[in-house]
């Protein structure tokens, strides 16, 4: 009788052990861009996990020993075999990619195919002064850009220097920017912190050169929400990412508009009058919320499909504190502008 009971107990323990082992595996074999392999040990990796429509993606297949075996594998996208190790992904949606090596099937890699979310915008940094006689050439150029098709997506920042005489709009840190960008004369203007804006004549600027900043596809966008408390402006700035990025920084400036102050004028603009006694100065740089060349965006927050949020504040004692703007822009690892946003203080400007 004891022997029979012992045998029953042994069979019960054996059954429990088998059941425990059979419930340990929960891997469904799916992954993002770089999977851990299917149940066979064959692993499929993709060069990208999130792309724009009509983007080429490459794949790598490894056998169960980790050796590259891509040339021997059959790779399928949504069940359709591709030729070679790369393919052009078309059509918005999630693409399921697998590889077969002999009789073994890899993990599934899911790739999101999207369309661009953000409007591309450009930046003109205008190095100017109220006493600079040729500077109205750039002022007129900015107006000409804004009057052109899509020109409203090009924003300006006026950085004043008193070298030509007293200028109440002088930006105290102007020399830092001037030295960095090699500003040796006035007027000077820089497009997207990447190139000098060329003059078309003594009186006009090359408008098409400025508009060409809008020709690229921006992979990031910005949103600005702000309020005023006394002389302090508080801003919440969001950076949205279509695709994975790296090395990006955020720059944000406080601008003042509607300052009426005489402007020396050697051009034939504004009727050729000098000085222009009632000249209205706009987009005047008063202070910066960030480092002039940008605050680093954490690397782990530059992921496609996500947003980064910065909470900033700045204080300014400008002349016309009821007409302020915030301009925010993202620069890449080379310092070049990748996209810009502008909003009046006290408003909420969403991604566009």
TrEMBL record:
InterPro entries listed in its UniProt record: Ig-like_fold, Omp28
Top-level taxon: Bacteria
Signal sequence, start to end: 1-25
Keywords: Signal
Protein name, as recorded: Omp28-related outer membrane protein
Top-level taxonomy: Bacteria, Pseudomonadati, Bacteroidota, Flavobacteriia, Flavobacteriales
């Amino acid at each position: 009788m004891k022997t029979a009971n012992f045998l029953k107990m042994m069979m019960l323990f054996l059954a429990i052990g088998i059941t425990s082992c059979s419930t340990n595996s929960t891997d469904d074999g799916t992954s993002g861009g770089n999977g851990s392999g299917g149940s066979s040990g064959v692993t499929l990796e993709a060069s990208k996990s999130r792309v724009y429509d009509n983007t080429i993606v490459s794949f790598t297949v490894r056998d169960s020993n980790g050796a590259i075996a891509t040339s021997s594998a059959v790779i399928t996208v949504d069940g359709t075999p591709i030729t070679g190790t790369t393919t052009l992904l078309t059509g918005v949606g999630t693409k399921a990619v697998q590889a077969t090596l002999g009789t073994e099937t890899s993990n599934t890699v899911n790739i999101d195919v999207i369309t661009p979310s953000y409007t591309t915008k450009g930046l003109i940094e205008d190095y100017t002064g109220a006493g600079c006689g040729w500077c109205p050439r750039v002022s007129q150029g900015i107006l000409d850009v804004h009057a052109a098709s899509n020109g409203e997506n090009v924003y300006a920042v006026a950085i004043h220097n008193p070298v030509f005489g007293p200028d109440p709009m002088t930006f105290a840190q102007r020399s830092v920017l001037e030295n960095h960008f090699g500003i040796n004369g006035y007027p000077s203007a820089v497009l997207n912190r990447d190139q000098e804006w060329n003059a078309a004549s003594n009186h006009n600027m090359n408008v098409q050169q400025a508009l060409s900043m809008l020709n690229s596809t921006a992979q990031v966008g910005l949103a600005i929400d702000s309020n005023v408390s006394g002389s302090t402006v508080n801003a919440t700035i969001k950076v949205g990412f279509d695709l994975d990025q790296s090395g990006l920084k955020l720059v944000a400036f406080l601008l003042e508009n509607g300052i009426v102050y005489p402007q020396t004028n050697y051009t034939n603009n504004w009727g050729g009058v000098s000085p222009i006694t009632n000249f209205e100065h706009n987009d005047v740089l008063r202070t910066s919320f960030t480092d002039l060349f940008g605050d680093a965006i954490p690397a782990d927050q530059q992921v496609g499909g996500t947003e980064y949020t910065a909470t900033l504040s700045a204080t300014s004692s400008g002349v016309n504190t009821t007409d302020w703007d915030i301009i925010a822009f993202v620069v890449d690892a080379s310092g070049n502008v990748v996209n810009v946003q502008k909003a009046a203080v006290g408003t909420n400007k969403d991604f566009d």
